[in-house]
Amino acid sequence: MYIDVYVVNKLKGLIRPFYVRYLNRIIPRKYFYSTKKYPFLGTSFPIPNHSVQLLEFWYGKDWRTPKSNAPSNDEDPRGTYLEKHCRFLFRPIHKIIK
């Protein structure tokens, strides 16, 4: 058994109240508004209260079905428009407002 540990980072600019960053992914902050403690190997870790919805967002509705030969999310070259263009759209606006 193994466990993935994800560290999310705050974003800057106008999208900061609504999104967080994990690696090169932009994730709606709503999944991280509230957490609950989850026991694992004698230690409690904070996990999102709505972890199933986060897994559906991250992997799709069929997240419970293993996919052979599929790239991991951090290797997946696809992505949303926001993810691909965030640095061009929001950083300049942040600098102007600041």
UniProtKB/TrEMBL annotation:
This is Uncharacterized protein.
